[in-house]
Amino acid sequence: MEFLLKNGKGMTFIFPVNPEEVTISRQKGLETATILNYGEFDFPQGNRIKEISFSSFFPQEYDAAFCKGDKKDHIKPQTAMNKLNEFLAYKTPLQFVITETAVNVPVYVASHQSTFRGGEVGDVYFDITLRTWSDMKVAKTAGSSGAAGANKKPRADMKEKNKTYIVKSGDSLSKIAKLELGDSSKWNQIYKLNQKMIGKDPNAIKPGQKLVLS
């Protein structure tokens, strides 16, 4: 089992020493998987992983008892830390893989910390947090074309509707103008809007006629 980070250019970074624990932060709580005690493990696909964090160290000297890869490929601690700093600055996601498991997800290096311990000259201990990445998808709104647009609700009509009035017995245009528009002199305005229906005589309005006032 190996812990790997890959970039889009084919570069693969192998963590030389497997961590004893990996913490998987999900939307619904935390799950801890112990790697060395249980060997292979799979993560359910139902819940999307949010963060992956673990701790390990970069040894100064290669030791086949716990180091991954070949001795000739052993990476020095300072070089390894520089590589993590480089990953931290990446603007594109990396691929994080734990071989022999189902973990194979795009991530960003969210943070990492280094620790130097007395008595272990040259070794560098670290904590690292990876945050999973997913492509942003924009949902179609009601106004979009396609299936979503076909089921859209009709947009509310924001236009102001014309004011109307039903003529009653004894009404005149000046009376209507006074009551509905607040100014009897606006009878001519009403007449112009309804001249086709009223005819040539503005006094010839009839009960039941629907007049447009504005």
UniProtKB/TrEMBL annotation:
<dbReference type="InterPro" id="IPR052196">
    <property type="entry name" value="Bact_Kbp"/>
</dbReference>
<protein>
    <submittedName>
        <fullName>Terminase</fullName>
    </submittedName>
</protein>
<dbReference type="InterPro" id="IPR036779">
    <property type="entry name" value="LysM_dom_sf"/>
</dbReference>
<dbReference type="Pfam" id="PF01476">
    <property type="entry name" value="LysM"/>
</dbReference>
<feature type="domain" description="LysM">
    <location>
        <begin position="163"/>
        <end position="213"/>
    </location>
</feature>
<dbReference type="InterPro" id="IPR018392">
    <property type="entry name" value="LysM"/>
</dbReference>
